[in-house]
Amino acid sequence: MKMPVALVWLLAFTNLLLIRGESNDAICKDRFKLDPRPHSVSILEFGAVGNGEYLNTVAFQNAIFYLKSFADKGGAQLYVPPGKWLTGSFNLTSHLTLFLEKGATILASPDPSHWDIVSSLPSYGRGKRYRSLINGDNLLDVVITGDNGTFDGQGAPWWEWFESGALNYSRPHIIELVSSKNILISNLTFLNAPSVNIHPVYCSHVHIRKVLIKTTIDSPYVLGIVPDSSDNVCIEDSTINVGHDTISLKSGWDQYGINYNRPTTNVHLRNLSLKSPTGAGISFGSEMSGGISDVTVELLTIQSSLVGVAFRTTRGRGGYIRNITISGVVLSRVDTAIVADGHTGSHADDKYDRDALPVVSRITMKNFTGEGIGLAGKFTGIGESPFTSICLSDIHLQTSSEAWVCSNVSGFSDDVTPEPCQELMSSPSSCFPGGGDTAARYYYSW
């Protein structure tokens, strides 16, 4: 006797969470041990002045240079005491802890001459950009933490220059770590980033927890955390309120991302409070040409945002977004709860391959509730590469519009209100291919 569809769905989804979740959950459970470094120095020892006016770039650079000598002796800590420490950009080193005491604020200089100009990342193409405030390249074992110390990007002038078209280069981030491994960022506040707050790119084993990230509502295209062509990433127990997307998973832009071929994969996001008045709580893409896969998202609160969950791509991107599981989402005052758009984003240049079609498939969303929602969902795939296996279950949204907008998409839904469009009410085989009487058979055929 065949099981009812709802029971098949429930059992299969449970197996999916258990089997996928075991590996992804380990990403967050495998935390760094915050043992004290055997060596510690204060930034004061290098002539720094914490009055918010004295420029401390050289002090930070000299301190890091000195601490490099302890890399093979168990590493070292750079201690930043209470005060306002104005600085331009500087680089970290391996086996380092940067510790911001309670009441300590690292202030980013608002003078562009205090920021180096560097080449674009290889997965994003040609051009120049401003180096980020805190940088690291090919590092191992880096901890950026504190007793709720603060990084203040002082981004207002950068936002004005961006909106007026006065910038010749891309805006800087607060933290950017490149091709690095074993990174922990925790117990910190981030304010007023010029662009992105935390950007791990080409990194492995990144753990971000207990951070507060905020900008004002008028901050243009300021993002919270952007895992980019990185793997084994955990982001948890944090609050992010920014002008644009709070967490955005990316993996390169058009032919540059395709050629670099470094996906974002094995990511676990959990227990997050998110707010994005002009963007999305969680977004995938639109720069995703290296691929995004095997992502578990759970226990989100998304409020006062333009979009709850967004999947973005366009013709010419190539790449894929697949094997995504999102559950336990509470939405409040969100214009559109779920968006999957195959016609979003510009191109790096005119050399992209117009036949490089992205693939969006095997997206599972379960246990969403929402009040004050405008549109429940908008799914607009690409004609030659429709979005497939979009699987919705136990989703209940109080909307001002009953409509779901669907084109070039297919999937299955169970226990969803308001009732979704016909394209998302097809056979369960669109989510659990292969048929059969058991949920396990459905799951293992994925």
UniProtKB/TrEMBL annotation:
The gene is LOC130494452. InterPro entries: GH28_Enzymes (IPR051801), Glyco_hydro_28 (IPR000743), PbH1 (IPR006626), Pectin_lyas_fold (IPR012334), Pectin_lyase_fold/virulence (IPR011050). SMART domains: PbH1. PANTHER family: PECTIN LYASE-LIKE SUPERFAMILY PROTEIN, PECTIN LYASE-RELATED. The keyword Signal applies. One of its GO terms (molecular function) is polygalacturonase activity. Transmembrane segments: none annotated. Belongs to the glycosyl hydrolase 28 family. Keywords: Glycosidase, Hydrolase, Signal. It comes from Raphanus sativus (Radish). GO terms for biological process: carbohydrate metabolic process. The keyword Hydrolase applies. Residues 1-21 form the signal peptide. This is Probable polygalacturonase.
